[in-house]
Amino acid sequence: MREIPFATFKIRVGDNESLGGGCAIGGEWREITTDEIFANKSCILFALPGAYTPTCSSTHLPGYEDKYDTLLKYVDEVYCASVNDTFVMNAWAKDLKIEKVKLLPDGTGIFTKGMDMLVNKNHIGFGMRSWRYSAHIINGEIKRMFVEPGMNNAGDDKDPFTVSDVNTMLKYIKSYT
User: Fold this and answer.
1) Fold classification of 32-176 (topology level)
2) pTM of the predicted model, to two decimals?
């Protein structure tokens, strides 16, 4: 297996002053690296095309949130990455009432590119985004990835959601440990 790429995520913490429309300020900028996130831990990482998009908002992220406590019986933490900025990710988490899964805003796509999961979604106005996948990572090394079929389908409106879901990961992680 291969190691995850090194990246630094720029996040906002403590934003509690609402500007309306889901945007909040008042906190501070922080940086967290993949080394800090994944070193000496067993983690689940799943990635999706974008905050506020239909499957991501109705099923993908909420599924992992709903089964978070069960997943923590097998791993140390669960993360969700998307090529969105921290303000969008924070507003999305607030709107969906996400309190357990940790969100990783990859606004520049550097981490996603390093994972070889960056795809062109210009045909639907998204620009560069993450392909949908999930991964089990131990101490920064990818042990197993579930990548949706049809990757790099620029010009195709398909957005498969068949193997990166929480139930597939839960079945795998139970058999792994």
Assistant:
1) Glutaredoxin (3.40.30)
2) 0.94
